Amino acid sequence: MVITLLAKKGGVGKSTVCLLLHEAFKKAGKSVAIQDWDAQGTSTRALSLIDSQRVMPNGEYDVHLYDTPPGLEHQATAAAVRSADIAIVVTSPAPADIWEAAEAVEFVKANNPDAVVRVLFNKVRRNTLLGRLIEESGKNVGAPVIPVHLSARECYQHAVG
Ligand SMILES: Nc1ncnc2c1ncn2[C@@H]1O[C@H](COP(=O)(O)OP(=O)(O)OP(=O)(O)O)[C@@H](O)[C@H]1O
Ligand SMILES: [Mg+2]
Q1: H or E segment and range at residue 37
Q2: Is residue 44 in contact with ligand 1, taking CB distance under 6 Å?
Q3: How confident is the model over 29-85, as pLDDT tens digits?
């Protein structure tokens, strides 16, 4: 199974979510590899710090996580979306980011109509107005929203204790 993380916007947390999913699948007993399509190499470098496992992009894994560069114009983003079984658009709750998330959802639908597409709100602070409004904002992104109960950082803290 290929899960592609993407966003039109930089810095919304694609690589962070990619790494958290990697840890979550490992804890669930699945074999998982990250393929980093972003020249910045954030997730590859971070993974080398937390996991000595050598990543073999063509190896047999239960789950392949594809991290992508910021922006939809990169060929790497389009290729990673075309290969996806599941495409997760990562966004912050800020209005401008949500508009761009809707564009990213359209991008997935245009490039890979068979992919399951979901939107994940990251960097959510529930004690702010934007944080309280995300259920409402999520109605405007063009795809189902992965329920937000915890921020990625809170999930990570729960995972590592
Ligand atoms: N839920 C969160 N809470 C707090 N900080 C976060 C959270 N998610 C990500 N960050 C921080 O935000 C910054 C950007 O995250 P990250 O590198 O994962 O984004 P990205 O979308 O992969 O960026 P790029 O577009 O540059 O590849 C990092 O400093 C990261 O630690
Ligand atoms: Mg990144």
Answers
A1: none
A2: no
A3: 999 999 998 888 888 888 888 775 555 656 789 999 999 999 999 999 999 999 999
**How far, in Å, from the CA of 147 to the mean position of ligand 2?**
22
Phi, psi of 106 (to 5 degrees): -60, -40
Query: Would you say 8 and 70 are in contact if contact means Cβ atoms under 8 Å apart?
Result: yes
**Which residue in 112, 108, 76, 69 sits closest to 89, CA to CA?**
108
Pocket test for ligand 1, best of 15, 73, 126 (most atoms within 8 A of CB): 15
Sequence-separated (6 or more) residues with CB below 8 Å from residue 84 = 2, 3, 4, 66, 108, 112, 115
Ligand 2 centroid distance, CA of 72 (Å): 13
- Which residues have a beta carbon within 5 Å of ligand 2, which is an ion? 14-15, 42
* pTM of the shown model: 0.89
The domains of the chain, with CATH numbers, are: 2-160 (3.40.50.300)
**Spatial separation of the C-alpha atoms in residues 124 and 139, rounded to whole Å:** 16
